[in-house]
Amino acid sequence: MNGAATLEKWLQHATCRLSAESCERVRIEIQDHFDSARAEALAAGAAREEAEHVAVESLGNPRAANRQYRKVMLTRAEATLLRESGWEARAVCRYRSLILIPLAIAAAGAALLAAGDSYIGLALLVGGAGMCLPLAAPTLSINTPARARIFRGLRWAWYVVVFAVAFWPTPLRQTWFIVAVAWPIVWVEMTMASIRRKLPARQWPRQLLF
Questions:
Q1: pLDDT digits over 73-119, tens only?
Q2: Quick one: residue 18, left, alpha or beta (phi over 0 = left, psi -120 to 50 = alpha)?
Q3: Sequence spans of domains, the chain
Q4: Which pick of 108, 133, 138, 160 has the fewest CB atoms within 10 Å?
Q5: What is the pTM of this model?
Q6: What whole-number distance in Å separates Cα of residue 196 and Cα of residue 203?
Q7: Separation in Å, CA 171 to CA 51, 126, 174
Q8: Is 109 exposed, middle or buried (0-12, 13-18, 19+ CB in 10 A)?
Q9: Nearest alpha carbon to residue 62 among 24, 20, 13
Q10: Nearest-10 crossing angle of helices 20-43, 76-94
């Protein structure tokens, strides 16, 4: 296998699961490293094929490199989530009247509470009020990491209250269902947290703030 093919195979392993932009950055960086190592080997008297082999070997284990890259660069899943969340934020900003839906749910819950139906009324009130948070977020002045942390804290408090109301008084008997419902939420939040760690705060798109 020639040097170009060997390098391409190394890059395929090293860039596995990375976003397109991350892959391009890795390829440029590795190509420079490869060219430099090959030039050094040629200058030392190595044949062309041997110099290319030495250059690839100098790159190290591609799978180990991939693990390191995924810690500091966006993966495909993260880039997809970031793109989709950006579309959702723009849609909310464009159709601000959507917030009337959770407000109506909260109002119905309040009315049921007043009428004496405490369980359904409380569930609708908490759910509707909490749904206002993500819908209102793109229109609020959440423009610093500190404000973003406060907002995310409020949202997590809402999650806890919603699950407490929905599954009380026998949450242990419904553990599997709670996990099934909560896992997508937790996965999104964990992925967003990972993206925040990888990008400097000054480069955060607005949807990362909330």
A1: 999 999 988 887 765 555 555 556 666 777 788 788 788 878 887 76
A2: beta
A3: 3-72, 77-209
A4: 160
A5: 0.69
A6: 9
A7: 64, 18, 5
A8: buried
A9: 13
A10: 150
